[in-house]
From TrEMBL:
The gene is LOC112288136. Pfam families: Phos_pyr_kin (PF08543). This is pyridoxal kinase. Its EC number is 2.7.1.35. CDD domains: pyridoxal_pyridoxamine_kinase. Keywords: ATP-binding, Kinase, Nucleotide-binding, Transferase. It comes from Physcomitrium patens. The lineage of its organism: Eukaryota, Viridiplantae, Streptophyta, Embryophyta, Bryophyta.
Length: 309
């Protein structure tokens, strides 16, 4: 018997996102940091968990399972068998192995046979602060295969250096790295964390059409002297959401994404103060306060203006 048809309530969706990244039972990283914000911004989200861990790796103990490439492809085949591969966006984050990343490439190809206009937003999670937290063997796969099929790329400072082979120490070098990445494929590039002059700088670049020079900008925010986990995952999800609303205005989308992220971090710090701040906060005290920040995610006040370059 066919399932009953859902009633048409006249509700529209911004789109449907297939989000493939990590998952934790407790806390907000990976899909746990991305799904709720995207839903608040009007998207239907289908999450696939590349790993399922008890908590993030900043805790003393981590337990859980890792999805392999064959298991990922089995999920895609199940969706295809039921004619459910209709996605406007693909979002990828933490990928732990070369074989899984190679399967992601197959997923991109498959989804684009259904929707040639699929937007692929790739957060090339590899490491931070000069250190890898994935196998370095993933770097050439990202550089030589993944970047070329991405629509938007959101590396941090370290990851941008790995993808371009450039040392990035100045704003000008970051902008040049964006141009290198445009030449490899994506029309939108946002380097999400560039440390310059004790400020955290976000550098963005958008090629509106082939042959044109990119429109570039920066957003500076004060450094917060705490270490949070899941901020890159949240930032990329917010960039996806707001750039869908403002497809030709990446700087506007980035202003809104940054403002939401900073509000979440400030809410997290405020909660830590309430629970008794210590010189060395416990990991659970710095878990992102997403649920307490829903208004800041849905309707952020743009407090950090983009400066066109």
């Amino acid at each position: 018997m066919a399932p009953p048809m859902e009633p048409d309530l006249g509700l529209s969706s911004a789109g449907r996102v297939l989000s493939i990244q990590s998952h934790t039972v407790h806390g907000y990283v990976g899909n746990k940091a991305a799904v709720l914000p995207l839903q608040l911004l009007g998207f239907d989200v289908d999450p696939v968990n590349s790993v399922q861990f008890s908590n993030h790796t900043g805790y003393a103990t981590v337990k859980g399972d890792v999805l392999d490439g064959e298991q990922l492809w089995a999920l895609i085949e199940g969706l295809q068998a039921n004619d459910l591969l209709h996605y406007t966006h693909l979002l990828t984050g933490y990928i732990g192995s070369v074989s899984f990343l190679e399967t992601i490439l197959r997923v991109v190809e498959k989804l684009r046979t259904v929707n040639p206009n699929l937007i692929y937003v790739c957060d090339p999670v590899m490491g931070d602060d000069g250190e890898f937290y994935v196998n370095p063997e993933l770097v050439p796969v990202y550089r030589e295969k993944v970047v070329s099929v991405a629509t938007m790329l959101t590396p941090n400072h370290f990851e941008a250096e790995q993808l371009t082979g450039r040392r990035i120490e100045t704003e000008a070098e970051a902008l040049a790295a964006c141009i290198d990445l445009h030449a490899a494929g994506p029309s939108k590039v946002v380097i999400t964390s560039l440390s310059i002059d004790n400020m955290l700088t976000i550098v963005g670049s958008h090629v509106q059409s082939r042959g044109k020079s990119p429109e570039q900008f920066k957003i500076a925010v004060p450094k917060l002297h705490s270490y949070f986990t899941g901020t890159g995952d949240l930032m990329t999800a917010l960039l996806l959401g707001w750039s869908h609303k403002f497809p030709d205005d990446l700087d506007k989308a980035a202003e809104l994404a940054v403002s939401s992220l900073q509000a979440v971090l400030n809410n997290t710090i405020a909660n830590r103060s309430k629970t008794g701040a210590s010189p060395e906060p416990k990991p659970e005290q710095l878990e992102l306060r997403l649920v307490q920040s829903v208004d800041d995610i849905r309707s952020p006040a743009a407090r950090f203006p983009a400066v066109k370059l």
